[in-house]
Amino acid sequence: MAQYSRISGSVGLITLKSLPVNALGAVVRQGIVDSLKTALQDPKVTSVVICGQNGVFCGGADIKEFGDSESGPPLIPMIHAIEAGNKPMVAAIEGFALGGGLELALGCHYRIAHSKARLGLPEVTLGLLPAAGGSQRLPRLIGVPAALDLIITGRHVTAAEALQLGIVDQVTDHHTVDAAVKFALSVAGRPLDARRISSYSCPPVSGDLDALFEEVMRKVRRGARGAIAPVACVQAVRAAATLPYARGMERERELMATLFTSGQARALQYSFFAQRAVSRWSTPSGARWDASAPKPVRKVAVIGLGTMGRGIAVALAQAGFPVVSVETQEKQLTEAKRAVSQMLERGAKRRGVAAPLDKMSYSSNIQAVADVDLVIEAVFEDMGLKKKIFQQLSAVCKPDALLCTNTSSLDVDQLASQTRNPELVVGMHFFAPAHVMKLLEVVYGPRSSPQALATAMQLGKKMGKVSVAVGNCPGFVGNRMLKAYVEQAFFLLEEGATPELVDSALEEFGFSMGFFKVSDLSGLDVGWKVRKEDGLALPGVSTGPSARIRQGRRYSPLGDLLCQRGRFGQKTGSGWYQYGKPGGRVATPDPWLHSFLEEYRAQHGLVPRRIDPQEVLERCLYALINEGFRILEDGIAAGPEDIDCIYVFGYGWPHYRGGPMFYAAMVGLPKVLERLEHYYRAHPDVPDLQPCSLLRRLVASGSPPVQKWKEAIKKLHSQL
Ligand SMILES: CCCCCC/C=C/CC(=O)SCCNC(=O)CCNC(=O)[C@H](O)C(C)(C)COP(=O)(O)OP(=O)(O)OC[C@H]1O[C@@H](n2cnc3c(N)ncnc32)[C@H](O)[C@@H]1OP(=O)(O)O
């Protein structure tokens, strides 16, 4: 709702009231329209202030209402009525003014912001554009280049930047509504024509306007990789720059109509709520986020200052934690100190703050962690080494200190068993570079206490990560699913594809790089080491029927064969592609590799066939999705939202496709099932293609929407 009152004798005060962010749902809009009418009709009222309750102006349109049929007064005429009003309207912005919230403020004649407020038009992140006049008013107010920046990126600006850009008229450190009321009294009776942004022309740009838009559009299309909203945002701002306001608004409406009902908008809005849903974690044993209080964490230690340890230490210091970093090799320690300081300084420069160098301390002695509340061990992926460190930590640390391991695949429970308090051990799987990547898998073992899990989840949140609680199994969620995808990519090469064909299908889908380019970038030796440890990459079995079978199932030794030839990817100058020189970055197709594949197929009696991009996508993505269903069935992830956040924030899954499980729901579960059945019939020696029973049961129960899977899975489990 919106509440109306008259204060200071002559100021009408409209307060938006809709917890938690005063979103502009139907009831709030009705409240604003009614209040406005009262204020405009009351002769005692000479000016109006619009504010929000609880220190928050407005978080924009109510995203939860987007799927519903529209009710209540529409937003655009409401904002027009505010702007057309014959009494000065002042927006009092506290907390945030985002999306429709900022558009409402732009409809007002003046804007006063608290110094801690943030403003922005983040619609693009929801697959939309600012379609309540934002794409037309903002460029008119602050100019085309600045408006393009804000609208295309959706970034939030501080009140200080908003003042500098000219979005707000005044910034206050004091009580915002009081300041706005004082301001409203001071402008009462002033002429308003010059304050109505819709009447402005965009300020002229230096240089050629067409050239500017062409350049921006080129950049946006390249960066968007198939996302349609950023492109529509540029088109809408172009309309503002080239058309009268009314025609610009028409263009804004047309563009929004296409976006509003698009699959991309649905996916991005699903992802918005999924990110929030994963913080409400639960485990199969009944532990829950709302019943488990985290332990206070004041000081943290990182063990091992290789690439991962350095990134983790930087992320912790940036989040404000004092960090003790332990590295036993003196040379590595000296290098790491310099590298960490540089990373902190670069990050601080980018964010315009002081580098938190004082948060860091270093030692070569593990005794230095004796007083910390939480340790993150980040040494090499070597179970023997990690076990030794956990034994030492258990002896050195405070008895109630949380012991976390940064591992991408090792058994967290085995490490827990090395300690006095296995309930205080959890996995924290960071993604490289750890100070940049948003994802954190928090791995609970069978003995991890709910409090330990809650503490690690909260630490991840404070580090700015999307933290997802997952159960302990080989590869956890992300890497377990990836295995099925990678395997299909190898098999497709055996059957006739090239790395270029597979990669271009995946890039066309929206991944920034196809699997083979990623593999060259991260180094083929990484996977080779794991396969050797798992007993898969065997020396000396390069011919005969057993060459392509391991542990009773189809296996492709192609990656191992490249590694045996020293082709580790970019670092050696060749892998699945060639790079000209060791360390080269530009992948070019490699005729040697093509001949090698031909010889390999001939040697193994494989008859190459034409493989189309659709098969690449179906084989790679549906195998991965199938493993996702197994993970849900096993209770390793609590819901599809958890898997989708892991893939969007850790594995480069195109955000506008929501994540693998959302994608499966969009494709249609019956279709995914039918294609998996088809491929499994063709490849009965590939168990990853055998449709998982949960997928079958969801299809049999009518393929509920992805938002209902959690419930459906619970029900299906209880029927077993
Ligand atoms: C042709 C048709 C024309 C129609 C025109 C339609 C115009 C649309 C323009 C828009 O306004 S689109 C929306 C633009 N706004 C946003 O994108 C803001 C989204 N929200 C945020 O970024 C953050 O929530 C926040 C506002 C910065 C607050 O962050 P904080 O960390 O403090 O809290 P959260 O945990 O994120 O949120 C709390 C709670 O509130 C829910 N929520 C937030 N924003 C909205 C919203 N705009 N609508 C509905 N609900 C919202 C959020 O989901 C959380 O609830 P949950 O239950 O935990 O999920």
UniProtKB/TrEMBL annotation:
Domain 3-hydroxyacyl-CoA dehydrogenase NAD binding: 299-472
Limits of the 3-hydroxyacyl-CoA dehydrogenase C-terminal domain: 475-579, 616-705
Entry superkingdom: Eukaryota
EC number: 1.1.1.35, 4.2.1.17, 5.3.3.8
Annotated catalysed reactions: (3E)-decenoyl-CoA = (2E)-decenoyl-CoA; a 4-saturated-(3S)-3-hydroxyacyl-CoA = a (3E)-enoyl-CoA + H2O; (3S)-hydroxyhexadecanoyl-CoA = (2E)-hexadecenoyl-CoA + H2O; (3E)-hexenoyl-CoA = (2E)-hexenoyl-CoA
Single GO term (MF): enoyl-CoA hydratase activity
Pathway this chain belongs to: Lipid metabolism; fatty acid beta-oxidation
GO cellular component terms listed in the entry, alphabetical order: peroxisome
Chief location bin: other
GO biological process assignments: fatty acid beta-oxidation
InterPro entries the UniProt entry points to: 3-OHacyl-CoA_DH_CS (IPR006180), 3-OHacyl-CoA_DH_NAD-bd (IPR006176), 3HC_DH_C (IPR006108), 6-PGluconate_DH-like_C_sf (IPR008927), ClpP/crotonase-like_dom_sf (IPR029045), Enoyl-CoA_hyd/isom_CS (IPR018376), Enoyl-CoA_hydra/iso (IPR001753), NAD(P)-bd_dom_sf (IPR036291)
Keyword tags: Fatty acid metabolism, Isomerase, Lipid metabolism, Lyase, Multifunctional enzyme, NAD, Oxidoreductase, Peroxisome
Coiled-coil annotated residue ranges, if any: none
Pfam families (alphabetical): 3HCDH (PF00725), 3HCDH_N (PF02737), ECH_1 (PF00378)
Subcellular location: Peroxisome
Subunit field text: Monomer.
Family of the protein in this entry: Belongs to the enoyl-CoA hydratase/isomerase family.
Protein name: Peroxisomal bifunctional enzyme
Taxonomic source organism: Betta splendens (Siamese fighting fish)
